[in-house]
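Reading a protein record of the kind used here takes only a little practice. These numbers are not coordinates but entries in a learned vocabulary of local backbone shapes. Here is one such record, which you should read through line by line.
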Amino acid sequence: MSKLRWGVLGVANIAVKKVLPAMKQCTRADVTAIASRDLSRAKDAAVRLGIPKAYGSYAEILADPDIDVIYNPLPNDLHVPWSIKAAEAGKHVLCEKPIAMNADEARTLIEARDRTGVKIGEAFMVKTHPQWLRARELVRSNATGELRSIVSVFSYNNTDPKNIRNKPESGGGGIMDIGCYPITMARFLFEREPARVAAVIDRDPQMGIDHLSSALLDFSPGQAIFTCSTQLVPFQRMQLLGTQGRIEIEIPYNIPPDRPSRIFFDDGSALGGHNSRMEEFAIVDQYALQGDEFSRAVQENTEVPVPLEDALKNMLVIDAVFRSARSGQWESTNSSRSA
């Protein structure tokens, strides 16, 4: 089977350091072009990554008839505008998370997809990784009893005001960058939507971005709690607690591509978890899996791993988190209002 030809918008770190090197392992995808508003940067990335073509504008790569799929890792405020342009150029689109700046903007992308007939998906690479598929399988099989609580922490430390993640006008801040992960994976595991959320947000006094946030998602009768921060010691973990057992995801989000990943199942027989059972997963790169699974959906005309309908539901929760932090009250996730 021939590989789909992928083009990349921009030279973002996640693209050139993680996604594109990983996609060299893909059996269904081949990155053949990269674009930047600075041609020299595009050429440099192309040479380093072995990409045949480099363009000095995003419009040029969209006009290339030899590109089948566009990967969009641009800043958050450019996700929807350039994904729509790519769709209108007849390209399928894998767009980085979060899909949009708010739910209303995400709806415009769904409209563009339906109008153009292309495939568009959100790049939550974790949803194709074997450790997450296994965790959901254990929950579905009632291995934990009834899933009642999910607790997660995700943090790193970045105080550089020039970094795009610290610019609120570009969609920076902890919730948009990393808080979206515990939100989407709680939805993935409960397999339903939270009815309401409550949140507390602390903002950096100089940069204005949310740098420490905690939220409670009501999945009645279950709950999910998370804390995310862009100014704490780097750490991540997730605990799934049921009526009869507990699952711990050791490295839930930035899953290492160079060593096996692990989850732990604990029946509660020892408070320290000494009797927990470990499951280890073979070394895989989640970005390569993501590229192949998206390509498979295009080639076989099936649903993409993370469709826009799911992306919209995640944005509705994110919007509600921001509203709750402002109002100091529970906020519904069903509102059509934007953050």
